[in-house]
Amino acid sequence: MKQVALRCLAAAAVLVTLVAPAAAQGTLRIGMTAADIPLTTGQTDQGGEGQRFMGYTVYDALINWDLSSADKASQLVPGLATDWRADEKDRRRWILTIRKGAMFHDGSEFTAEAAVWNFDKLLKTDSPQYDSRQSAQGRSRIPAVAGYRAIDKYTLEITTKEPDAFLPYQIAWIMMSSPANWEKVGKSWAAYAKTPSGTGPWRVDRWTPRERAELVPNKNYWDPKRIPKLDRLVLLPLPEATSRVAALRSGQVDWIEAPPPDAIQSLRSAGLQIVTNAYPHNWTWHLSRIEGSPWNDIRIRKAANLAVDRDGLKKLLGGMMIPGEGHVTRSSPWFGNPSFKVRYDPNEARKLLAEAGYSKAKPVTVKILISASGSGQMQPLPMNEFVQQNLAEVGIKVDFEVVEWNTLINIWRAGAKDPSSRGAHGMNYSYFIQDPFTGFVRHVESTLVAPRGTNWGWYQDKEMDALLATARTTFEPAAQTKALQAVHEKFVDDALFVYITHDVNPRAMSPRVRGFVQAQNWFQDFSPVFMAPK
Amino acid sequence: MLLYLIKRLLYVVPIALAVSAVCFSLVFLAPGDPLSAVLPADASTEMVEKLKADYGFDKPIPVQFARWVGRAVQGDLGTSIATGRPVAIEIGRAISNTFVLAFFACAIGFTLGLFFGTVAGYFQGTWIDKLVTAIAVAGVSVPHYWLGMVLVIVFSVVLNVLPAVGMGADGSSQWAWDWEHLRFVILPAITLSMIPTGIITRTVRALVADILAREFVAALRGKGLTDRGVFMHVVKNAGPTTLAVMGVQLGYLLGGSILVETVFSWPGTGFLLNTAIFQRDVPLLQGTILFLALFFVALNLIVDLLQTLIDPRIKRS
Predict the structure, then answer these.
(1) Which residues of A touch B83 (CB under 8 A)?
(2) Global confidence as pTM
(3) CA dihedral in degrees (B54, B59, B61, B63; nearest 10)?
(4) What is the CATH number of domain B87-310?
(5) What per-residue string of b and e applies to A144-154 under the rule 16 or more CB within 10 Å gives b?
(6) How do the domains of chain B map onto residue ranges?
(7) A240 → closest Cβ in B32, B171, B263
(8) Residue A451, preceding bond cis, omega within 30 degrees?
(9) Would you say the ipTM is above 0.85?
(10) pLDDT tens across A96-146, in order?
């Protein structure tokens, strides 16, 4: 009997070890791809990575992303606002209810006035707290916002220029800094950067520019489910990919972002975890639709989409991609049911090209701008060469012009008609496609042709404009999803881009790292992560 | 001597101006946009233009250069576009870290270079000379970033005895001269010392061999001077040239190595320059290069003066 009891006790102990994290939750050291610690004042720099590590950790937005699931695309959830709704009588007027009792790390309370103060920080150039650095990062994220005011301590009103149901997605970009802390440090953002204060689940304990930042749990976080399990989160800028891999393999860090594809196999062999998932990123050829572009013929666009051997490309990348079936991944709620199936079918591609008057012997020639490297660009040189060979097989001759990544960004802003585009018929560009505006609107809306917006290819289509307008003025979530599905179906059915791949956001980590759920999002939640005992 | 010193100091002005002008031109000739570091990719053209005006990049390049020079002569190197921090503070932090690395690389490189060079010079034509020459050629020829990666794979990844990156478990701000921190400097210092080892070895070998073949050495030996006495004469004769070579190497090492510091994520001037180049951070790039150029000029001057002190045949007048 005594032995049975002892066995039961031992079994229970093992179960507790397996089910619950150990009492000592440990320190997690992450090697980032960034060359510096992202801006700590609230609105971060360093793109999606900055927001991932210094935005959603230390700060909150009024509306946050749900980062708790790996199985489905992330949705918006209450953040510092518990609910939001557009006024039924005037759809330009939004009312947001502010969460009561959400406290900044400095002990002050987040209120509607604090939200207004934060919008002024980005938009009102003559306000004392206006910060050009944060404004450069945040202003372009909230193009719909026309005005804002605090109705009372816990009620915020935001007005938009036009009725715009996409506003919540824009608001999810804006991180809320503490007015009280800014006052306390002498109304200086430089001083604020040294002692940041947000409402997020982590607070900055200490940091050294260009070297490391150490975050510790905010035990008073307003969402008890997201109070971090770790004792400490250390962020290290390691921009050189081979250095990140070496740091992980030598045990100096526990987790690295974006391991190079050719290192994945060796990392797996060394017993390290490789975590991947679909996320809102695509790697496409953005097509020029200006007069004279061969891509104005839908048969050529469809032929290019059918000529790409995506499974072959996947092998080239060691499995680190999701074959493109559309502008968004199939797991996205906006995928819909396009009638044109993006697949590898070279015979069908040849048939379409023959109808258009081209063949392998008499190819259509296109010039594509590509970069040699760049954030989110994966492995642009071998990947583009692979696609080039695929297209040559069916009768599309591709000439590349390789430009530096930042130059490509500038060309993209300038538009296909600009001389800087050098008469190119397309460009290889990877896109952040997390919300309806970045995913769809900016690429195709008629009013956003470059340089006014980033519709690089000068695509203009009244039917598409109407579909976008419907989605933008559909405020009921399920109906809005349906409207966005219609938009995406047109994207695919009209083969507006050459859809090639989606990145899978690989991360490599020590087997001791537990509890991480890789959300289908550019941002991630580090709260459930813990370190297994050595 | 004083006149020489003043003349050399005055040379600094055109050198600094020329270095700044070349650097400024190169930054603007290179593709990319200095504002890309602070703007999201999808920032509108209107936003880009506004920020250009805020930073003064909308002005003609000569005007921008003149403004920068005007501020620099007052000691204001400006503010980094990417970080918003003063360039002087960024450089100050990085240069002190590079000094730590350079100190150890010099210690290794100069010691080995002098030793190998002298031995090879004394045993010219023997297998010892051939072996040392092979080591020296390898030191100069092997790409040091490649060597750095190999050392990391062997000592950090496979043997797991030395750290692969960084400047201490808690970063450079917590640097101390104890084993816990010194172990971080071993691999980058060995990597960085390879080139000076090779160059100094070859220089010293040639000098020693040349001096030993001179008639005055035979005369000294004929007069019955001991080997030690002869060695001292060899050292005195080889000293000035060796010192000049070591001075140049010291300058290179103190200037920081972009490749080695990037491979080892060592937060020095090389790492800083690499980041500034990729971010098109013009003020940071300008400030760092100007500082390093002035530093190099100053170091050369010191070496020249030291040469005069140890070799009275060299006149600086």
Answers:
(1) 36, 209
(2) 0.87
(3) -100
(4) 1.10.3720.10
(5) bbeebebeeeb
(6) 87-310
(7) B263
(8) yes
(9) no
(10) 999 999 999 999 999 999 999 999 999 999 999 999 889 988 988 898 999
